[in-house]
Prior knowledge:
It is built from 13 helices and no strands. It is an all-alpha fold. It is found in: Cell membrane. It is a multi-pass membrane protein. Keywords: Cell membrane, Membrane, Transmembrane, Transmembrane helix, Transport.
Amino acid sequence: MSQVSTASAAPADSSDAAVSGTSAESTASAAPASSTGDSASGKARRTAEPTRRGLHPLTKVAVGAVVPLLLLAVWWVVTEELEIFSPIQLPAPLDVYEAGVGLYESGLLAEHMSISLQRVLLGFGVGAGLGLALGSLLGLSKIADLLLNPTVGAFRAVPSLAWVPLLLLWVGIGEDSKVLLIAIGAFFPVFTSVHSALRHVDPQLVEAGRAFGFHGLRLLGTVQLPAVVPPVFSGLRLGLAQAWLFLVAAELLAAAEGLGFLLTESQNNGRTDRLLLAIVLLALLGKLTDALLGVIERKALTKWA
Length: 305
């Protein structure tokens, strides 16, 4: 009896070994399958990354150029083909181009563009710097906010042209008055954005920064300002747009060079072609400086946000 039971137990043991061998084979075969699936999902993620990043920069430029080209075509049709407007009312695009070529050859075009760009950059730098500093102070200090915010809000309501007579009286008609007027225009959008953003920073984030030993300016530069990068740059871009608006206001009233002066001189001389040229150049320079600020914004978002 013991021999029979021993013999019958042997096949059972061999069957168990076969089952275990089969399970081991299935486990071994499953491992490559799972690794293959992981690699496939990784490839899918890498393929989907360019889609999430958005359109190619050249594609964005091409799409953004559609409307300006359509406007240029309509401008050419209504002036050259249909002749709806007289040359005094609306010159043709070719006339404006020829006016630009004439100013370029005389050297006046580069002079007007460079002085206007210099004034905007200086005024924007001063105004944005002061707006960033004062907005940070009022956004971080409740006492400073209670003391200064009503006064700053009252000055913000003053129209831009109201500052011109006072600046001419105090500073004169030189470059300082123009730069100061542009700085006033750039100050308020930056101040408002920074002040409002810092008032709504997550308190837990601030406490975490203090727990790591950050205080004062170090806490502001390391924790608080990086937390509000998008609204800060929105304020900077609005301030830059305001700087170009205030530039025209400054150069219309007291200037002997610049694109604003070119506008006034062209109006007085009946040169509508040069007047339109100045408007187009203001639009192009404004868009160029805004695009450069957008590049800095993307780098700041990549680094801090």
